[in-house]
Amino acid sequence: MVRLIACIGLGAFLSAVVRPTYGDITVFSNARSVGIYFLCMVTMGYAENASGKEKILTEIFNGYDGKIPPNYDNDTPVKSSVQIYIIGIDSINEATMDFSMSFFVRQRWVDNRLNYTPTLNMSRLELDTKRMSNVWVPDLYFVNEKKADVHHVTVPNKLMHIYPDGLVVYSMRVTAVFSCTMDLQKYPLDDQKCYVVLESYGYSTETLVMRWHPNPVEKADNLQLPQFELQNITDYICDVTYAGVTYTCLKLELFLHRNLGYYIIQVYIPSFLIVILSWVSFWLNVDSTPARISLGLLTVLTMTTQSQGAKASLPRVSYIKAIDIWMSTCLLFVFAALIEFAYVNVLARVDQRKVNSVTSKLNEAKEDEEEKTQNQQSWCFTKLEDKERARMLDKISRAIFPAVFLVFNIIYWLVYVFWEPSPAA
Known about the structure:
alpha+beta; rod-shaped; 7-stranded mixed beta sheet; 12 strands; about 45% helix; 5-stranded antiparallel beta sheet
């Protein structure tokens, strides 16, 4: 009413002051007065709306104690709805068994002490971060969190809206590192289950009950992981009891499938080629000692170095991993190729010693022509036998080594692709 009287008075005053002296434009003056009246109404409406918000904030916080939970005197628990919006999963570290995730934590609860009557064009109150400290919030914390930060650039990344019925919507942006116990028996052909566990630190279920929002988890459209694929997210309610007191608990299970492409290119194919390279010595002449020993030592040392590099980023666990089986078997194959050369070389050296021994005997028995002929025939037979044995061993190795390695690959990939280790292992 005060606003209406003021606007009418202002319109009448302006009409009288600026009324033209010519009667034929009196209508224009009256129209201008009406416009001024409506402009005045709108301007004063916005001013009253702004002052109304300040008045509402003053009224609802007058006598409000943010240290006391809602419904504290009624012995009724506050029901808080929790939702998580995943911005990104930055890294998953097998060595430290943890993962880093950036996300929004959104909570909703009703605080009847914050009820108010809305004014014109006002659906909610949006609080500044300095005002948020005056409002009671649930004491949510992350059980398996190693390190967490609430973003403060350029201001604290927090949001709080208060609706007329006392509904409080609270959101904050967090980046946290969570522990994740991993089973690496099938690494790198493994799947992992990591968890995010939320609990109330100080309030029992008699004071605070947290439950998942009907849509508990949302993800950013561009969410991607470098080595894993986030296949499924499952939510649980896991209320726990400590010292006879029950506390509210929520849990998220993240099912992560490891992408094998990186390991195929960086681990499996190079080691596979090194094993094949070690078989080249089987096609070299048995007398090519420098070439065969260089090739054998080179493949063994290369395989050892690659094995150490592939396992450098893994924790020192007591069980055997799939990568250990692969690397150890490849090392065994290249080492066996080197041993095969050593045995062939021994046969060649024995043959050479026999040649030298026969030649010495021939020099001592020159006068006996018949005995000399027999010894030459015996020497030729022995030489032919030893050389053929060495060559035959190389020929057998050319077939045996690839066949055994092929059988190993079939067994290895069938086992580790389809086998699922028991949870107790």
